[in-house]
Amino acid sequence: MENSGEERAREASRLKAIEDRLARLERLLDLKPQAAAPAPAPTVAVAPVAAPPVFPATRAPAMPPPPLPPAPLPPALHAPQQRTGSWLGAVAVICFVLAAGFIIKLSLESGWLTPPRQIGLALMFGLGLVAAGLALLDADREYASFLPAAGVIVLYASVFAAHRLYALLPFESALSMSAMISGLCVWLYTRIRSDIYPVAAAAGSYCAPLVLHLGAASEFSVYYYLLCSVGFAVISVWVRSRTLTMVSAYLAMLMTAFTGLALKHDSLTAAMLALNFVVLSAGVYFYSAHNDAPLTEEEAMGFMPVLLFFYAMEYYFIDRLAPGLAPWLSLGFAALLLGLYLAARRRFPGENIGSGQLVLAFVTVVCFHSFYLELLPKDAKPWLFGAIMLVLCAPALKLAGAGRSGPLRIPAVGVLAVLALEYLSMASHLFSGGGDQWLAAAFFSVLAMWALISFKGEELAGTSGYGPLLGAAHLLAVLGLYRLTKDSGSLYVSASWLVYAGAVMGYAFARRDAALARSAVFVLGFAAGKALLYDAASAPTVVRIVCLLLTGAALYGSGFFLRKISGWKDGAGA
Question: Which site from 65, 76, 141, 565 is most exposed, i.e. has the minimal number of CB atoms within 10 Å?
Answer without folding.
Answer: 76
